[in-house]
Amino acid sequence: MKSIKTILFLLSSVVFSFSIMANNPLEIRAEKAYAEKKYDQVITLYEAILKDGFTSYKLYYNLGNAYYKNNELGKAIYHYELAKKIDPTNQDVKTNLIIANKKTIDKIESKENFFIGTIKSSLVNSLSTTGWAWLSIFSLTGSLIFTFMFLVSKHVLLKRIGFFVSGLLLITTITAIVSGYSALKNNQELNFAIITNHETKIHEEPNSASKTKFSLHEGAKVSVLETTKEWTNIKLENGNEGWMRTEELGLF
Questions:
Q1: pTM of the model
Q2: Cα→Cα distances 51→55, 69, 85, Å
Q3: Cys-Cys crosslink for 219: which of 104, 147, 158, 236, Cβ 3.0 to 4.6 Å?
Q4: How does pLDDT run across 198-228, given as a tens digit for each residue?
């Protein structure tokens, strides 16, 4: 019951935000400026809307587009990622994120098998957390129905159908639960960040005088191990770690 109330509250908040945003004079001015290709002005206006406390996938998506048009790739990817976090199934967001990521300089190889990682990511992001929840409910219900058919039916064919279909639906239920949990975890995790600076030095220790280990460029996605106001300890998918200035990356 508590989770249902939470979902209803979030939905009402989104609807309320959209209704206000639709009449927001700053948004109207931003859309006009975007049509006139005044991207610096668009960014200023959308950032002002964010400072007023409004958030939505549309706002982050539009701001990402403005940064992309303004040749600020890191900030574009950061805001696309924020939009994706709110609406992970939105095709426009996913498409623009793919296009932007192809322009990044750093191609970091993951320790995880690329093929397996791609399939896992595609599966988890194919539905929202709500979608995975409903799928698990329907598939579990179906599994119970076909299990009942298997138990009470006196016909061999119906027993076989009940057995195989209930088993298939049970596997679907488990997959939906695991994928939904992964999607929820991805949405709630705060340990990822995007490099927003054109180029940043990664140090061995959290001070400028320490030795530089390597450099990263805008748009690179990193894991955050520890963060302070001035310095953040980051880790790459290939296992490399180091410290960089917090102001040079966008935290989730």
A1: 0.67
A2: 9, 22, 19
A3: 104
A4: 999 999 999 999 999 999 999 999 999 999 9
